[in-house]
């Protein structure tokens, strides 16, 4: 069994037992929160160690910002940013890794280095080779809901359900195991503020519709700036509130910048639930 497969089994076992923290590690010059801070190996290593010490269960590493208005990055540039950092970190950090990419070539190269999960912000619907790439590797998969444009007139939850049905059909056709798939409502991607809130509120409905774990990725997002008037560095309280709300609605994995704070909040939540 490869290192990526072994760590995937650890991740899936933990997923069935408790809420998991996915620590964010951006190797990007232009991410909205921490762009340019962790592109070099030493800085990335220090941040990875901080996330691990804070209680992260999996590290999500990406090299293309997907914030609103981002400039797309070619696959060769994406891999140029990833390659010097990803291999050493997978070797040094005894946690599962996920690769935040919608490009099959990038995913394939990352999986070959020991990455366990592909986190595709287009849910297999942007690169037609992605489903096969995931299936052939036996990797885990996060399918996220996304839209090219915001349409305030649509029922965003119904749109999400239709989107995930298409993604899961692609996964099934390629042979991706359902037991290795998570869904992500895609807060901040092609949605208005009201639709972002509706997407979060629909966590229970998503769980019931597909019977799959739900990943929530709201850390420090613009939604909290709009709701609270908070700058990027002052959005932890909003992030915690949203994540605890969705945890109560059945969410399973939380993609965050602040691992220690979330691990503490989830420990208290579980203590109360299990009292």
Could you please describe the fold and organization of this structure?
This protein is α/β, with parallel strands linked by helices and 275 residues long. The chain has a single domain, classed as TIM Barrel, CATH 3.20.20.20. The chain contains 11 helices and 8 strands. It has an 8-stranded parallel sheet with strand order 6-5-4-3-2-1-8-7. Strand 2, helix 3 and strand 3 form a beta-alpha-beta unit. The longest helix has 19 residues. It is globular, with a radius of gyration of 17 Å. The mean pLDDT is 94.
Question: What gap, in angstroms, lies between the N and C termini?
Answer: 39 Å
Main pleated-sheet profile:
8 strands, parallel
CATH class reads: Alpha Beta
Strand order of the largest sheet: 6-5-4-3-2-1-8-7
**Total separate domains:** 1
Number of strands: 8
Structural class: alpha/beta
Over all CA atoms, what is the radius of gyration? 17 Å
Instruction: Identify the quaternary structure here.
Output: single chain
User: On the 0-100 scale, what is the average pLDDT?
Assistant: 94
CATH homologous superfamily assignment: Dihydropteroate synthase-like
Uncertain stretches: none
Q: Percent of residues in beta strands?
A: 5-15%
Helix percentage range: 40-55%
CATH topology: the name is: TIM Barrel
Shape category = globular
CATH architecture descriptor: Alpha-Beta Barrel
